[in-house]
Structures are given as structure tokens and as C-alpha cells.
Specification:
The protein contains ten helices and 16 strands. It is elongated and about 80 Å long. The chain has two domains: 14-208 and 327-413, Zn peptidases (Aminopeptidase, 3-Layer(aba) Sandwich); 210-324, Alpha-Beta Plaits (2-Layer Sandwich), CATH 3.30.70.360. By secondary structure, it is an alpha/beta fold. It has helices spanning 25-37, 51-58, 88-92, 140-155, 180-185, 234-245, 295-308, 334-347, 362-368, 393-413; strands spanning 64-68, 76-81, 100-106, 125-127, 130-132, 163-169, 193-196, 204-208, 210-219, 262-270, 280-289, 316-324, 327-328, 353-356, 373-375, 390-392. The longest helix is centred in the last third of the chain and has 21 residues, at 393-413.
């Protein structure tokens, strides 16, 4: 049953009330397919290969371009769309008081094993109402919808009520160290709010777990395999570590959107030969954290858990490979409510507020940038990283409409003033 919001269109100009009919579906699929066809699996990334398609797609709106390339081929492309006739000088003189909306999305994808796919992962195809291809859901489909929303809004007789900054960033799939983090460190995360078109099935995400990934290196003492108790087996102690950590309950209250922190043991390597007591073993872990947990706290929590399991005397070291802090904003934040209204006006359904068990680049906006950021995009997260990845064409269309509504309403429907509350 579709629940209609009487307030859903209140922030939208009357001449864009029927935005769906103005979506150029052929262009939407064409752009999404062009983005997918440029393979950018990370590693190695090579996001620079996609900049030409992105520049051409936004060219009709004459953006101001900035490229950031912290490593060869690892390009993040920024395109700023201002009100016609203004520039940096005009902004400083107060010629425009329009707020700035950031659209942040990554252009890298995870690798794909082509022989396991029914169709080539980088040769997109539409079948049975689905767009197939690596990145269709995560998240080149969302990027295409965000770009095509500009043309949809224009065709409907509307225009953005805000400046829009498109941040097409590198390296999100490997933690964002060469992408949004670089933008943050360069002072380029500037705006009033941000939408990240990651796949949420158009639900509105306001919270994410953080992550701690790495290896626990266990040291033993070698001995002849026929006399195992004359040595110290690193593998034996590694097995105890696995039992102590995998799917363990780290305690504490449940987060209303994120549940409890978790730990997964994903890899285990050790020993050099079956007839030698193992001198070293490596336990690969992936711990997911709640917002507010620092790197030191996360590592300390692992140690405490191992000591509680009786492993305090074991010779081990924790090597951190990646850390990303959790993040959240208020579920009733005015910007989250505005995005809900825009989605509801596109679909007829009030989207839920959700949390994500994984991490996106929204954390840089929320934590370091102090910018309200929601994750909301087409496609099911269950399709992300999978074989034969796909996104529903109908949802790509709905996302295009929702983003068009957001562009025209952001400057008037939210600018520090809470819009009318949406109830689910």
C-alpha cells in the first residue's frame, strides 16, 4: 500500500509537480551504462578514465571544475554549479546567499570475476526492467540519477534553488584514503548539507558503523612435529583467538539503528610445514564499531576481549590495516526530513530512516566536515559487490525525480529552518 504525504510536495514549485513525466529514461540508462562501461575496479582504481564521461554529462550546466590526483590515475573530480552570473568574487561580496548542496559519490567499484557473470560486468545490459553491470547499484546508477536530475528539473520548468557541488571521488571502496579524505585534508569539503547516492533502496540513512580491519600476528616457538609440546604453536593460539573474537558479543546497549558492534574473522594463515610446530600465524579480522569509538578504544577492546578469554600470556601483536570511524546525525534532523519528503513525492511512500552496518564516505562529511549528510540512492545494498549486480530501472527513475525535487527545494525547504515533520 502506498502512503501519500499531503506535505510531500509543499516545498516543490508547482510547475515541477509532475516531474516523473520529464525524466528522460533513455538518457538516464545511456549515462548509467556509459559510466559502468568504463571499468574502474579498485584495485587499481584508475578513476581518471571516467572523468571524460562525467565532464561531458555535466557540460550543459557549465560547472567550475577541479581535479585532485593524489596518486597516478586516482582522480577525484569536483564540479560546482552556481547561479548564472556569480563567481567566487560575487560570493565574497554577498551577491548570492544560496546554500550549497554537496552530491558526493565514488567512481571506483569492486573487482568482478567476469566468468562468473551471465553478462560481462562492464558491458551493461537492460533486461526485465533491471540494469545489469558492475556499479549499477554501487554506485554509478546513483551518480547517473543525480546528474540526470538536473535535466529533469529543467525540462519540468524548474531550476536549482541552491548551488550544487558534485564530488566524484576515488577510492571509496578501499577506505577513501585517496578520495574524500584528500578532499577533506585539502579544505574542499565545504557545503551546507550532502547527499550520497549509495544504494539504500531510497531509504534515508543517517548512521553508519565504523570499521577496524587488520591482522593479529601470533608468535610461537618451533619444534619437531613429532614432539608438539616441546614447542609453542602459533596456530593453536590463533585458533583460540578466532573462538574468542568471531561473532563475539562486545557488550553495551544496542544502538537504535546500528545494533551492536561485531567482529568477523575472515582469514587465517600460519605455519611453514606440517612437520613443524607453527612459529607464526596471522588472524585477519574485521571489527565493526559504533559511532564515538576511537582507534585506541577499538584496538583496546580487542585486547580486553582476548585477555578475558585467557590469552593475556600469548605473544601477539595487533596490526591495523584500516580504520574508519562510525558516524551519525539526528534521525529527525531537518535535512533528513527534507530528503524523506523529496523521496516520498517521487514514490508515494514515506521512506524509512535507517542505519548501515558498513561504512561510506558520508563519515568524512559528518565527522570532520561537520556537515549533515544522508545516504540515499537507488539499488539494493544486497546487490552491491555481488555477481550479476543490478539496479531496478524504475528505482533509477524515482531517484532522479527525488534528486530533482531536492535540488529545487533545498534552498527554500531547508536552510537551518526545520521543515514540517514527516511521520511514518
Amino acid at each position: 500500500m502506498r502512503r501519500h504525504l499531503s506535505t510531500a510536495r509543499a516545498v516543490v514549485s508547482p510547475n515541477v509537480g509532475a516531474v516523473h513525466q520529464h525524466v528522460d529514461i533513455e538518457r538516464l540508462i545511456e549515462l548509467a551504462s556509459a559510466l559502468i562501461a568504463v571499468g574502474t575496479p579498485n584495485p587499481p582504481g584508475n578513476e581518471a578514465a571516467l572523468t571524460g564521461v562525467l565532464r561531458d554529462a555535466l557540460a550543459p550546466w557549465h560547472p567550475e571544475w577541479t581535479e585532485i590526483e593524489p596518486a597516478p590515475g586516482r582522480v577525484s573530480l569536483i564540479g560546482r554549479l552556481r547561479r548564472p552570473g556569480t563567481d567566487d568574487v560575487g560570493d565574497r561580496l554577498g551577491a548570492t546567499a544560496r546554500p550549497t548542496l554537496i552530491v558526493n559519490g565514488h567512481t571506483d567499484v569492486v573487482p568482478a570475476v567476469a566468468e562468473r557473470w551471465a553478462h560481462s560486468p562492464f558491458s551493461p545490459v537492460v533486461m526485465n526492467g533491471r540494469l545489469y553491470g558492475r556499479g549499477s547499484a554501487d554506485m554509478k546508477g546513483g551518480l547517473a540519477a543525480a546528474i540526470c536530475a538536473l535535466g529533469t528539473l529543467e525540462a519540468a520548468g524548474g531550476e536549482p534553488s541552491c548551488d550544487i557541488v558534485f564530488q566524484f571521488v576515488a577510492d571509496e571502496e578501499r577506505g577513501g584514503g585517496l578520495g574524500t579524505r584528500v578532499l577533506m585534508e585539502s579544505g574542499l569539503l565545504q557545503g551546507d548539507a550532502c547527499v550520497v547516492p549509495e544504494p539504500t533502496s531510497l531509504a534515508v540513512c543517517v548512521a553508519e558503523r565504523g570499521l577496524l580491519q587488520g591482522e593479529i600476528v601470533v608468535k610461537g616457538r618451533p619444534a619437531h612435529g613429532s614432539r608438539p609440546r616441546e614447542g609453542v604453536s602459533a596456530i593453536e593460539h590463533a585458533a583460540q583467538i578466532v573462538l574468542a573474537l568471531h561473532a563475539a558479543d562486545f557488550g553495551g546497549p544496542d544502538h537504535p539503528l546500528l545494533g551492536r558492534p561485531t567482529a568477523n574473522i575472515g582469514t587465517l594463515h600460519g605455519g611453514s610445514a606440517v612437520n613443524i610446530v607453527a612459529e607464526e600465524a596471522r588472524v585477519g579480522f574485521d571489527r565493526r564499531l559504533l559511532p564515538g569509538v576511537s582507534l585506541d578504544d577499538a584496538v583496546g577492546g580487542l585486547r580486553e576481549r582476548l585477555w578475558a578469554a585467557g590469552l593475556g600470556g600469548t605473544d601477539f601483536e595487533i596490526e591495523v590495516r584500516d580504520y574508519g570511524e562510525g558516524s551519525e546525525m539526528g534521525a529527525a534532523h531537518p535535512f533528513a526530513e527534507l530528503v524523506r519528503r523529496c523521496v516520498a513525492s517521487a514514490t508515494g511512500d514515506v521512506p524509512p530512516i535507517i542505519g548501515m552496518t558498513f561504512t561510506t564516505d558520508a563519515r568524512f562529511l559528518r565527522n570532520q566536515g561537520r556537515i549533515p549528510a544522508v545516504v540515499c540512492g537507488p539499488g539494493d545494498i544486497g546487490q552491491a559487490h555481488g555477481t550479476d549486480e543490478w539496479a531496478p530501472v524504475s528505482q533509477l527513475v524515482d531517484a532522479t525525480v527525488a534528486y530533482a525535487q531536492l535540488y529545487c527545494s533545498f534552498g527554500t525547504g531547508w536552510s537551518g529552518t526545520p521543515p514540517a515533520q514527516v511521520t511514518s
